Amino acid sequence: MLWFVPLLPLLAALVIHGVGKRWPGDDRGRAVLTLAGVAITVATLLLVSIAVTADWGGTYRWSSRIVLSLGMTSTSAVFAIVVPLIAAPIIVYSAYHEASPVSGRETVRPPVGLVALLTAFVGAMELLVLAEDFVTLLIAWELVGACSWALIAHEWQKAGNLRDAAWAFLVTRFGDLGLYIAAAAAFAGTGSFAFADLAQLDGWRLDVFVAGVVLAAAAKSAQVPFSPWLFAAMSGPTPVSALLHAATMVAAGIYLVVRLHAELSAVAWFAPVAITLGLTTALAGGLVACLQGHAKKLLAASTSAQYGLMWLAAGAGFPGVALVHFVTHAFTKAALFLAAGIAERHVDSYSLTAMRLGRLLPGVAAASMVASLALAGVVPLSAAWSKEKIVTAAGHQAPWLAVIVAVAAGLSALYATRFQLLAFGRGRHDRMSEAVSRPGHSRAEAVALYLLAAGTLALSLLWWPGVGNGLADWLSVHFPGTRPWELILSLLLVALGMGLGVWAVRREVTGARRPGATRTGVADWLGLPRLAACGANAVLMFSHGLARFDDRAVDAGIRGSARFGAWLARLGERRGEGAFDGATNQLAKGIDWAGQVARRAHTGQMHHYYTGIAAGLAAILIILSIGALL
E strands along 441-596, which residues? Predict the structure, then answer.
């Protein structure tokens, strides 16, 4: 029965794509498309809810050694519920925010293809989080990668979009090799691909398994040095960025870490590696976001940083904290991306210095403020609770680690404040200006944003006494107890970060802070893309060298063999054919002569035959007599 959960959106996506082209191209078509997309995601959510309470499962025996299986754990249940919850408002938003041009016409139609891909993305992610073996996981992993490539390259007509989609795909594809290595190590050590048999792994196979999972998860969740692929993913439409960063593509990496945490933590080096990766990414991503002037890229760097904090929590031994932070971050980040898309529609740019739409869009600004304050870690909003738990989890490893994590949280407050004030502060478009003349946003887009902001507010109940403990019991996880000095230090650094954010915005607005080459390089992921380009160029140069060696050395032997064969053919044509034809003619003549001799004995007269028989018998008797005498 559990197979219905991923199959419903996957099959429905095909139906939407096939039937949706017949729907009208006006608001009625958008309404039908919205209802279809929302109905599928809501139905998926209902199926997940039933599966959790009814303890559904699913298996398909591929062969005697390979069994595809689905199951529901507390971790997979959380992800399976959050994915359609986030996807539903994003689909509403995309149906009205995006448009597909009709070939040969100036008119546009509802984005049927985009909504179908988003729906399929939901199904692929549901299959991934419900997988109970590596074969099923790899199938889902490939589907998620293919859907993300198609979504990033959705507007393929725009220059550079296909290149960026390929860049994001190849970087994550490199990390995917780790998952194949992990699956091979699991099968070699246990004779099975099932997660339930991973406890049998030990020795070097366990180390290989953990290394493969870490590589795959780090690349998918955009940890350093894989982080820059998120900037390439920004070429996709705004709804794609929202879903990809909030609950699907990037979330797949941290899901794998949380889901397999028991096996990963069995290796001594996993904890320091996860903490180092997470802390480095949180600090680097926070710094990049603080200096980034592109709204979507700021939020992308923030995503990388926040998932770095989740990695740190898992490395510190508290995967449940990482799980809760995923949920709070999903609602917060999806709302901010939708807000950025609405602002871009009004100013035709993602440049933060071109916005400041607070008075022009008060409702959008208010919803964005809720999400920004939550991202900043302001109490009592939802993300502040999970962020404080991450600080406490770090403190269980070492006090100095808690201090550094609190600094990373302060950077979150700085870039969240900067985003809110530059995008929706008061200033450039306070009064009626050129922004009003541009097409604005629809009510459906605003409603989608408001729903996500409402979800952020609802999750603030985590601060209510007893709610956190009840959640820990339901998830069967343990949350660390908060120490007073850690909470005070964290809140002070949040306040400091917000203050620095206000100061930075004032400098940018007044023009006192011109972006220089150094700042531009740091904002572009500390120069990592340039280093990657240098590495790619080096690989290409090496490949060209190998190609020249192949042409001059390997192909030389092949060309020599071809020339020798041609020489033999010419020799055969000149001399060989005459010799072979002469031998054939002589053989034919000999056979003809033998036949003529044989025919002489066949005269048709009986006395000739009797004479031949008598002569034969006489010859036999003579031979036998000679043999007897000898």
Answer: none
Q: What is the DSSP letter of 478?
A: -
3-state SS assignment for residue 514: coil
| pTM for the structure as a whole | 0.83
- Cα separation of 319 and 388, whole Å? 14
Tokens of 318: 């508290």
Highest mean pLDDT out of 203-207, 356-360, 430-434: 203-207
**Alpha-carbon torsion, ordered 545, 546, 548, 553, to 10 deg:** 140
CA 340-343-346 angle, 5° bins = 155
Q: What is the largest CA-CA distance in the chain?
A: 138
- Which of 36, 34, 93 lies closest to 451 in space, CA to CA? 93
Q: What is the tens place of the pLDDT at every residue in 494-547? A: 999 999 999 988 888 876 556 666 666 666 666 666 665 565 556 556 766 776
Distances in whole angstroms, Cα of residue 55 to Cα of each of 41, 46, 51, 577: 20, 14, 5, 81
- pLDDT over 70 at 21, yes or no: yes
Work out the number of other CB atoms within 10 angstroms of the CB of residue 144.
Answer: 25
Residues 481, 486, 487, 492, Cα dihedral to 10°: -170
In terms of average pLDDT, the best of 20-24, 118-122, 589-593 is 118-122
Residue with tokens 């709610």: 467
| Environment class of 465 (CB within 10 Å of its CB; exposed 0-12, middle 13-18, buried 19+) | exposed
pLDDT exceeds 50 at position 431: no
- Which helix (H) or strand (E) segment holds residue 109: the answer is strand 108-109
Residue 192 backbone class (left: φ over 0; alpha: ψ -120 to 50; beta: rest): beta
Peptide bond into 480 cis (omega under 30): no
Spell out a b/e string for 317-331, using b for 16 or more CB atoms within 10 Å of the CB, else e: bbbbbbbbbbbbbbb
What tokens does 113 get? 């293809």
If residue 553 lies in a helix (H) or strand (E), which one and from where to where? none
pLDDT value of position 534: 61
What is the full DSSP assignment across 319-330?
A: HHHHHHHHHHHH
> According to the 3-state scheme, what is the secondary structure of 241-300?
HHHHHHCCHHHHHHHHHHHCHHHHCCCCCHHHHHHHHHHHHHHHHHHHHHHCCEHHHHHH
Answer for the pair 201, 265: CB distance below 8 angstroms, yes or no.
no
Strand partners, 68: 60
Average pLDDT in the chain: 85
Q: Rounded mean pLDDT of 187-193?
A: 90
Q: Which residues contact 39 (CB under 8 A, 6 or more apart)?
A: none
